[in-house]
Design goal:
The complex is a heterodimer of chains A (341) and B (135). Chain A is an alpha/beta fold. Chain A is built from 13 helices and twelve strands. In chain A, a hairpin with a 5-residue loop joins strand 10 (230-233) and strand 11 (239-242). In chain B, helix 1 (21-32) links the parallel strand 1 and strand 2. The chains are: A alpha/beta (341), B alpha/beta (135). At the A-B interface, helix 2, helix 3, strand 3, strand 4 and helix 11 of A face helix 1, strand 2 and helix 2 of B. Strand 3 of chain A pairs parallel with strand 2 (36-39) of chain B, so a sheet runs across the interface.
Chain lengths: 341, 135
C-alpha cells in the first residue's frame, strides 16, 4: 500500500468510515512495516475509549452478554466497538469465528462495529493484533470497546492487562465453583458475573465466590488480585485509602436481566480508577507492557534475520547430538549475529 | 512484525432456511484448510451479510441457500456488496441450486456454485485460486 493511500484510509477511518476501519484492522493483523506506519498515524488519536474485557469458559454466554451490554450502551447513545477473539487451530492455522451468531440484533446498527479475530498462535487469550484493533476503533471514535475472549481465567492475563475493566463470566452449577475459586479467576476479575442465573445453583455460585473474596479482604486492597495500596487525598488534605472489591453480579443475558446493574458496576469501576489514581498507573503499566512485548519480538525478528538459516539448522543438530547445550548455543548465535552488524 | 496473510471467508445463510449442517461442514473444511471462517448462522438478511462482510474485511462470501430463494437473495447480496465498496469480494453459492439457474448466477458474478455431493477439496481449491489469483 503506498503512503498516500494509507493516509487516505487513516483519514477516512478517523472520520468514522467503516470500510476504512475494517481495512486498517486487517493491516494491523497482517503486521509488518505497514502496521507500524498505521499505528504511528492513529496512536495520537487513541486514549478516549473505555475498554472492557469479557472472559470466561466456553458456554457461559459471553457473546450473548456482550450483545446485551452493547444494546445498553446504545441506549445511552454511546457507540460500541466489539472485538471477539476465538482460538486459531494449532494444527491447521485456521479458525471458526462464530461469535457474531449471538449478535444478530446488532448487525445493522451503524453505531456498532463488530470484528472477529483469531488468536493466530498467540498464547494468553488474545491475538497480537487485538490491542491494535482496539486502538483503531478508539481512534475512530467508538466510546466503549468490548473485547471478548475465551478462557478459564488463569492464562487470560492479556485481557486483564489490555482492558480498563475485566469481567469474568461464570455459570451456575458448572461444577466449576471450585475451579472458579482458584487463584486465576479472582486475580484478573474486576467484576465477576454469574450468567445464566435462571439455572439452579446460581445463588450458591454467588455465595461461594463471595466467600472466596471474603477470605482475601480485610487489609488487602484489590486490583486484579494484586496487593495494592492506593492513597488519595481529599480536599482537606486527609489521606484516604481506596479499595475495590470485585462485585459478584447475577445476569440472565438471554432475557436481558441484570444488565443495567452490570453497566452501573462497570461505570463505577472506571470512576474508582480515576478517583484513586489507578487509571494513570494502569496506563503506565499497559504502555510499559506493550513496549516490552514489541521490543521482544522485534529484537528476535531482527536477530533471526541476521542468522543464516543453515547456521540455525547446524546449531539444532549440535544440540540434539549433545555437542552443545541450548543456552550456550543461543549465546553463540547472538554473538555471531552481533558481529555481522 | 512478521507478515501474515490469512484468507477470511464469511459463511452466511440468507433467508429462511431451517438447518445449517451443510454450511457447518463447509466451515470446518475451510478452517482445516487454514482459513478464518466468520460464521454468522441462520436467517441472515442481505443487509446483515453485507455489513458483516464490510466489518470483517473478508475475501470471500459463501452463501448457503436451501430454500429456493437464491434468484432473489443472491442478486440482492451482490448489489449490497457493490454499494458498500466490496465488489472485489468473491461470492460463492452452495445448497440447492437447480442447473438451469447456474448460468444466470454466473452472469451475476458468482464464482462457484456447489450443490450436494461437492467435494470439499474442490471448494477449498476454488477459493484459494480465486483469492491468491487476485494478488
Amino acid at each position: 500500500m503506498d503512503i498516500s493511500r494509507m493516509d487516505d484510509l487513516v483519514a477516512q477511518a478517523l472520520a468514522g468510515d467503516r470500510r476504512a476501519i475494517a481495512r486498517l484492522i486487517s493491516t494491523m493483523e497482517q503486521g509488518g512495516a505497514e502496521a507500524r506506519q498505521v499505528l504511528s498515524r492513529i496512536y495520537p488519536h487513541t486514549g478516549r475509549a473505555h475498554i472492557v474485557g469479557i472472559t470466561g469458559a466456553p458456554g457461559t454466554g459471553k457473546s450473548t452478554l456482550v450483545a446485551e451490554l452493547a444494546k445498553a450502551y446504545r441506549k445511552q447513545s454511546l457507540s460500541v466497538g466489539i472485538v471477539a477473539v476465538d482460538p486459531t487451530s494449532p494444527f491447521s492455522g485456521g479458525a471458526i469465528l462464530g461469535d457474531r451468531i449471538r449478535m444478530r440484533d446488532l448487525a445493522t446498527d451503524p453505531n456498532i462495529f463488530i470484528r472477529s479475530m483469531a488468536t493466530r498462535g498467540s498464547l494468553g487469550g488474545l491475538a497480537r493484533a487485538t490491542a491494535d484493533a482496539a486502538h483503531v476503533l478508539d481512534a475512530a471514535g467508538y466510546a466503549v470497546i468490548l473485547v471478548e475472549t475465551v478462557g478459564a481465567g488463569q492464562s487470560e492475563v492479556d485481557i486483564a492487562r489490555m482492558a480498563h475493566t475485566t469481567l469474568v463470566i461464570q455459570m451456575p452449577a458448572s461444577g466449576d465453583e471450585i475451579q472458579a475459586i482458584k487463584a486465576g479467576i479472582l486475580e484478573i476479575a474486576d467484576i465477576i458475573v454469574v450468567n445464566k442465573a435462571d439455572l439452579p445453583g446460581a445463588d450458591q455460585a454467588v455465595a461461594a465466590l463471595e466467600a472466596m473474596l471474603d477470605l482475601n479482604s480485610g487489609h488487602t486492597e484489590w486490583h486484579h488480585g494484586r496487593l495494592f495500596q492506593v492513597e488519595g487525598v481529599l480536599a482537606g488534605g486527609d489521606q484516604v485509602k481506596h479499595s475495590w472489591r470485585p462485585p459478584v453480579l447475577k445476569t440472565c443475558a438471554l432475557r436481558g436481566e441484570g444488565i443495567e446493574e452490570l453497566v452501573q458496576a462497570i461505570a463505577a469501576h472506571l470512576q474508582y480508577q480515576r478517583e484513586s489514581g489507578l487509571y494513570q498507573q494502569r496506563e503506565h503499566e499497559r504502555a510499559a507492557e506493550q513496549l516490552q512485548r514489541i521490543l521482544r519480538y522485534t529484537l528476535l525478528e531482527q536477530l533471526l534475520e541476521r542468522i543464516p538459516k543453515h547456521a540455525l539448522q547446524e546449531t539444532v543438530e549440535h544440540i540434539v547430538a549433545r555437542e552443545q547445550d541450548p543456552y550456550s548455543a543461543a549465546e553463540a548465535l547472538i554473538a555471531q549475529a552481533r558481529l555481522l552488524s | 512484525m512478521v507478515r501474515e496473510r490469512k484468507i477470511r471467508v464469511l459463511i452466511a445463510k440468507p433467508g429462511l432456511d431451517g438447518h445449517d449442517r451443510g454450511a457447518k461442514v463447509v466451515a470446518r473444511a475451510l478452517r482445516d484448510a487454514g482459513m478464518e471462517v466468520i460464521y454468522t448462522g441462520l436467517r441472515q438478511t442481505p443487509e446483515m451479510i453485507a455489513q458483516a462482510a464490510l466489518q470483517e474485511d473478508v475475501d470471500v462470501v459463501g452463501l448457503s441457500i436451501l430454500s429456493g430463494a437464491h434468484m432473489t437473495l443472491v442478486p440482492r447480496v451482490i448489489d449490497l456488496l457493490k454499494q458498500n465498496g466490496l465488489e472485489h469480494v468473491a461470492v460463492f453459492v452452495g445448497g440447492i441450486i437447480p442447473d438451469e439457474d447456474v448460468p444466470a448466477l454466473r452472469r451475476l458474478g458468482v464464482k462457484g456454485i456447489y450443490g450436494p455431493g461437492t467435494a470439499l477439496s474442490d471448494i477449498v481449491q476454488a477459493i484459494r485460486q480465486e483469492v491468491e489469483g487476485r494478488e
